[in-house]
Amino acid sequence: xxxxxxxxxxxxxxxxxxLACLCAAxxxxxxxxxATTQPAFVPFxxxxxxxxxxxxxxxxxQGRNALKDSASLVEMQRYVLxxxxxxxxxxxxxLGNDHFDCVPMAEQPGVRRHGLARIATPPPVTAxxxxxxxxxxxxxxxxxxxxxxxQLAENDRVDTLGHSRVCATGTIPMRRVTLQELARFPSLQxxxxxxPDGAEHLPSKRIVxxxxxxxxxxxxxxxxxxxxxxxxxNLWSPYVDTGxxxxxxxxxxxxxxxxxxxxxAEVGWQNYPGKYGDxxxxxxxxxxxxxxxxxxxxNLDCSAFVQTNSSWYFGGPFSNYSTVxxxxxxxxxxxxxxxxxxxxxxxxxxxxxxVGYYPASLYGSxxxxxxxxxxxxxxxxxxxxxxxxxxxxxxxxxxxxxxGYQRQVWYWAPGxxxxxxxxxxxxxxPSCYTIDGPYWGGYTPPSNYWGYYFYFGGPGGTxx
Length: 464
Fold this sequence. Notes:
Number of domains: 1
Strand content: 25-35%
Structural class: alpha+beta
Helix content: 10-25%
Shape: globular
């Protein structure tokens, strides 16, 4: 599968101040309006009409598409039309190169699939961290960072055509699932899988042998029974060279059930040009109930996640990204099992919004119906003979503002008490990616504390 063709960016890490400035210019971004040329606006009803009247022949001959055959397109048509069955949209807008539709909360795919008579009540507050008697001091300069309470800056709340990107009360923003995007994959199953081959990891245990592509990591982990975890993730947008058959680069946390079938709830940022169509990291979520085999999807691309808040845009880009040696941006992400639902919180310490949930019933009788047994934090990339940068593109030893980091990492034990992590380091590809830490950076609430943190990432390359 091939994504869009883009200009090749040098793959070497930043090794001097001058090169760091160049890398900062290449990696960082600060304006959605200037990032790409936006497509023509397509009203929602016209979009549905175009799906119904799509001709397989026109999709099969397009150079960017990997569509296997006309039967695969018919399956995709049915899938998209079913996803939007009985959905009424009165407001749509452009965000990056995507359309988003403001879908009534009760009409979103997750609510219809689960047959919900009402939306679940979120946790009353973010559970309090109980750090015990941890010692240590503040990290000093590491305190200078911009934590983003929202994906979009104030000046990005209206698209270039004047459409508001703020959905009305009672509706949620749903990134439009298009045939153009699906046709870049050979089949519907390939589209829904986390990567084209469907191979994934349980990195502290094993790596599933890929069919074509392979996954590489810089990550940390802890085997511990839990009902969720919290992680503040440094936000970057590393280059992914689709011309070299690189697939994606991401940073995330994994909440994992390991007793029997591997099950996950995942969240982070991801640069995946083959899916999203451009070179900017997007906010993403993912889940699987059977080890990435026949279940799972990104964002709201299938009827799994129930979104309850309109302030975050799954599959959408960010207004700002970190730059090497310059401004640093981050966001807090957490999962918490509450009253039978895995709730997702996004925001900043002290300002977390419960955005929605995966019903625990998605996991059947598997481990995550009641708890998780493993937590993981770090980065992942996918390629065949070449792999993209992770994090900033620098190795973890480059440190503050030159390498990616994750911080304020802790978990909830069954019963609701919260504890600092005790992480082990996994490095399947140390020639391309590394971990530095974890370290203790102090805990002085309610100020901007660091707690446990680590640096991650690297330049990638062809010898991973």
